[in-house]
Design goal:
Blueprint lengths: L16 H11 L4 H7 L4 H8 L7 H11 L3 H25 L19
Helix pairs in contact: 2-3, 4-5
């Protein structure tokens, strides 16, 4: 079995932080305007995030996390997956020419036994 990371290449377009935020706001019945007020930003900024037109920065992830009782890592991981997907699509041809200089370590060698 091989571990697959978002950096391995696109399999399917990942859900971004905007769609997760839209779903969460709908679930808790909070408008974008009320949420923007809660995190002290503009409704325009929240709307751009929800619509995938603006990236979630570290500072924004901290605000969203605090307001929604989630973690900043959750929002940043969603953004990272989208960024890696988009970058892979953008430089796919260049990646074909990249030469491997270090072979992968088999997963069974990564296990630490604490006996």
């Amino acid at each position: 079995m091989r571990h697959v990371s978002p950096l391995d290449g696109p399999t399917a377009e990942p859900s971004g932080p905007g769609s997760a935020l839209a779903d969460l706001l709908k679930k808790i019945n909070v408008s974008q305007e009320d949420f923007a007020d809660a995190i002290q930003t503009s409704r325009f900024t929240v709307n751009q995030i929800v619509n995938g037109k603006r990236k979630v920065t570290t500072a924004m992830a901290l605000k969203i996390a605090k307001s929604t009782n989630t973690s900043a890592a959750f929002w940043l991981n969603l953004q990272r997956d989208v960024d890696a997907y988009e970058a892979h699509l953008r430089i796919a041809e260049e990646l074909e020419a990249v030469r491997v200089v270090r072979k992968a370590t088999p997963p069974e060698l990564l296990v630490v036994h604490l006996d």
